[in-house]
Amino acid sequence: MDFLLFAIFLAATFGAGATGAMFPTGEWYKNLAKPNWTPPNWVFPVMWTSIYLLIAFAGARVATMEGNAYAMAFWAAQIAFNALWTPIFFGLRRLWGALPVMGMLWLSVLGATITHWQLDLWAGLAFLPYMIWVTVAGFLNLSVARLNPDVAPLKPSEL
Fold first, then answer.
1. Distance of alpha carbon 67 from alpha carbon 75, whole angstroms
2. How does 112-133 read in b/e, with b if 16+ C-beta sit within 10 Å?
3. CB count, 10 Å around CB of 83?
4. Tens-level pLDDT at each residue, the chain (159 residues)
5. Residue 23: Cβ within 10 Å count
């Protein structure tokens, strides 16, 4: 594996993850009703850091392989939707509006998992925790939206 490629993919993942610092959960999120199966707060940074390392590894493994066009396209799509979800959910507080983005994220992670797996076993395996975590996150997003129908979204000018 090319370590410079790994560093580039890692920078992309942590660039997407930076939206978490730009749009922190805040008091409004702490006060929302959440399902009893919501993971504790400390789990989220541990999972995302692990996932970002794994998908940077996966991307770097397949980036130089023949026939990687779909894998790279899905890799790019998943990181774009990953970066987009946080500002919509936490920044604009659009609990329902974040669901279509979550759906596209889930589909792009599924596509990345399959296409990376087709090229390299380890790259495909590296996407499995992400696939599981995005599934949990999708159900959590839906549950929080259902449990909090009166949350008023913010306008971009209110950020």
1. 14
2. bbebbbebbeebbebbeebeeb
3. 19
4. 789 999 999 999 999 999 888 888 888 899 999 999 999 989 999 999 999 999 999 999 999 999 999 999 999 999 999 999 999 999 999 999 999 999 999 999 999 999 999 999 999 999 999 999 999 999 999 999 999 999 888 877 776
5. 17
pTM of the full predicted structure? 0.93
Spatial contact of 32 and 144, defined as CB atoms under 8 Å apart? yes
Domains and CATH numbers, the chain: 3-33+45-158 (1.20.1260.100)
Closest CA to 151 of 54, 57, 35, 32: 32
